[in-house]
């Protein structure tokens, strides 16, 4: 900002009524050229932004409400295991990647050069979509719009012009993304949503192999590559379970607050249950490290190999007793659920019928918005809590002064552009074009600090992501770790923030 602009602004800086502002703008328009008027508006806006206090830090240990939740109504607490109670170190991603890569080589006979492809842990994020028809990894917002600058073929960014040529539009039809579920329609979705953290190393492997094929001019079918990688990684999960169970400390992060939280719930007369897709030996090894050998004493019901989301959607699959000593399930009919016994498969309907737990008295925590949370809230009326590991990194980034300054100025600059966009004089268009270039720079700056390729898990340039929309729809509350609930009483009510709708009072600041 030049000195003359600042001095002129300081001379007129005082409390003005709306009528005064209109009058001043009229006088200014008469006195100055369009160029000077726009520069003056820019200076005023910049000074206003600098004069405002930055927003307070967000608490990284906070619990955030999407829907009002009164904990005094909750009598039963349920938990998933992976990425809900057990949080994994980066070594687990490397393990899954390496196992999947080896499977591609051994079972599917992929080129030997793939053995040299190392995992890139900071490449992908959760919540992306993979287009199995076009072979692209991309980020969609809540309106199914593509975020330009976040579309990759292998490890190579795809230019916006090529993206528009491929899709003909920046908005993807919902049937292409989710499939067509209307009557007499059988169209399958052409995109896969990567909604859990186990999919991150899978996408890392997929993109590495695609990049290898592209660089070496090897033709491949994107859907075949996707299925080969997906099957390779999934077939390696039993191997991963065995390795992790034998070396828990190498792969699982300590979580000292878990035992204290379970004890608090138990002492207050709450019922606890565990429903997980993982096998017993894997869960048992992790829970013994996290809580202690007596971990099962805290749970009234433990169900392993649940095969969610089928556990929440099917009605006829019988629940079975799992013999942990023989490492097999028993064929006898289950007529009651007893503490200390491990159960296998089954359905939520059977669990509710045998326990009487139902509706809003149940609060279930999981990390996956679909397989953990969607059906229990939509079909069964349970309350839900999402455990989102990435929140810690996201909030720590939000709390930096640089991000706050850039985000606030981005908001105000965007408003400035909107207010002056109807000027058509050549000199005005030149200035507004500079403002647009600055806005683009700020948008990329606020994106790349979260992840250089894809930005934030929760936001595109200005809209919530597709992942966020699902999270906010299916989770009553969310946080990054179960232990953060220890900061709240068991009668606490979580209230959602009153958001600003487009037609309501505006606020420049995040």
Describe the structure.
- This protein has 510 residues and is α/β, with parallel strands linked by helices.
- It is built from 19 helices and 17 strands.
- Strand 5 and strand 6 form a beta hairpin.
- Mean pLDDT is 90; it is low at 1-30.
- The protein folds into three domains: 34-60 and 391-494, no CATH class; 73-87 and 252-381, Rossmann fold; 90-248, no CATH class.
Strand and helix layout:
Layout: H1 3-12, H2 18-31, H3 34-51, E1 64-65, E2 69-70, E3 76-79, H4 90-106, E4 129-131, E5 136-140, E6 146-153, E7 156-157, H5 160-167, H6 174-178, E8 191-193, H7 199-215, H8 222-235, H9 237-246, H10 248-251, H11 257-267, E9 271-275, H12 280-290, E10 301-304, H13 310-313, E11 319-323, E12 328-330, E13 342-345, H14 348-355, E14 362-366, H15 369-378, E15 383-387, H16 391-398, H17 401-420, H18 426-448, H19 466-474, E16 477-479, E17 493-494
Parallel strand pairs: 3-9, 3-14, 9-10, 10-13, 14-15, 15-16
Antiparallel strand pairs: 1-16, 2-17, 4-5, 4-8, 5-6, 6-7, 11-12, 11-13
Helix pairs in contact: 3-17, 3-18, 4-7, 4-8, 4-9, 7-8, 9-12, 15-19, 17-18
Tally of structural domains: 3
Gap from first CA to last CA: 24 Å
Indicate the mean pLDDT. 90
Low-confidence stretches: 1-30
Instruction: Kindly report the spatial arrangement of strands forming the biggest sheet.
Output: 1-16-15-14-3-9-10-13-11-12
Shape: globular
Q: What structural category do the secondary elements indicate?
A: alpha/beta
Percentage beta strand: 5-15%
Strand segment count:
17
Radius of gyration: 27 Å
Question: Mind summarizing the main beta sheet?
Answer: 10 strands, mixed
SS element count, helices: 19
Helical content stands at 40-55%
Family: Belongs to the 5'(3')-deoxyribonucleotidase family.
GO molecular function, one term: metal ion binding
Pfam families: 5_nucleotid
Protein name: 5'-nucleotidase domain-containing protein 3
């Amino acid at each position: 900002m030049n000195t003359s602009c600042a001095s002129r602004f300081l001379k007129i800086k005082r409390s003005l009524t709306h009528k005064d502002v209109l009058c001043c703008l009229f006088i200014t328009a008469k006195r100055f050229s369009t160029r000077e008027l726009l520069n003056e508006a820019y200076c005023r806006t910049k000074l206003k932004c600098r004069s405002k206090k930055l927003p307070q830090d967000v608490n990284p240990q906070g619990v955030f409400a999407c829907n009002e939740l009164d904990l005094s109504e909750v009598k039963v607490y349920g938990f998933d295991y992976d990425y809900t109670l057990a949080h994994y170190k980066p070594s687990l991603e490397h393990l899954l990647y390496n196992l999947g890569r080896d499977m591609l080589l051994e079972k599917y006979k992929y080129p030997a050069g793939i053995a040299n492809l190392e995992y890139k842990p900071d490449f992908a994020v959760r919540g992306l979509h993979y287009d199995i028809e076009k072979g692209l990894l991309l980020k969609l917002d809540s309106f199914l719009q593509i975020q330009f600058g976040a579309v990759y073929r292998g490890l190579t960014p795809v230019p916006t012009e090529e993206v528009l040529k491929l899709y003909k539009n920046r908005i993807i039809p919902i049937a292409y993304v989710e499939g067509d579920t209307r009557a007499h329609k059988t169209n399958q979705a052409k995109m896969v949503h990567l909604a859990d953290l186990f999919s991150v190393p899978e996408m890392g492997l997929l993109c590495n192999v695609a990049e290898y094929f592209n660089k070496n001019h090897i033709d491949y079918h994107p859907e075949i590559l996707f299925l080969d990688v997906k099957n390779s990684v999934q077939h390696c999960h039993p191997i991963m379970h065995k390795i992790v169970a034998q070396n828990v400390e190498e792969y699982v992060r300590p979580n000292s607050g878990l035992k204290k939280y379970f004890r608090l719930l138990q002492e207050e007369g709450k019922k606890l249950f565990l429903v997980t897709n993982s096998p017993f030996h894997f869960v048992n090894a992790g829970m013994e490290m996290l809580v202690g050998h007596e971990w099962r004493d805290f749970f009234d019901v433990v169900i392993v190999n649940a095969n969610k989301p089928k556990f929440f959607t099917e009605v006829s699959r019988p629940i079975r007793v799992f013999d942990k000593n023989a490492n097999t399930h028993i064929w006898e009919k289950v007529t009651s659920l007893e503490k200390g016994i491990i159960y296998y498969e089954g359905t939520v309907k059977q669990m509710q019928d045998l326990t009487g737990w139902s509706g809003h008295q149940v609060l279930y925590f999981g990390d996956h918005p679909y397989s953990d949370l969607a059906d229990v809230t939509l079909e069964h009326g349970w309350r839900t809590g999402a455990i989102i590991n990435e929140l810690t990194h996201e909030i720590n980034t939000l709390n930096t002064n640089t991000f706050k300054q850039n985000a606030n100025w981005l908001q105000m600059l965007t408003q400035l552009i909107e207010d002056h966009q109807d000027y058509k004089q050549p000199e005005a268009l030149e200035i507004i074009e500079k403002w647009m270039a600055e806005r683009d720079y700020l948008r990329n700056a606020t994106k790349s600090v979260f992840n250089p390729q894809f930005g934030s898990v929760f936001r595109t340039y200005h809209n919530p992501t597709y992942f966020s929309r699902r999270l906010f729809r299916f989770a009553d509350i969310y946080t990054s770790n179960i232990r953060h609930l220890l900061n709240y009483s068991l009668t606490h009510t979580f209230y959602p923030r009153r958001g600003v709708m487009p037609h309501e009072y505006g606020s420049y600041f995040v």
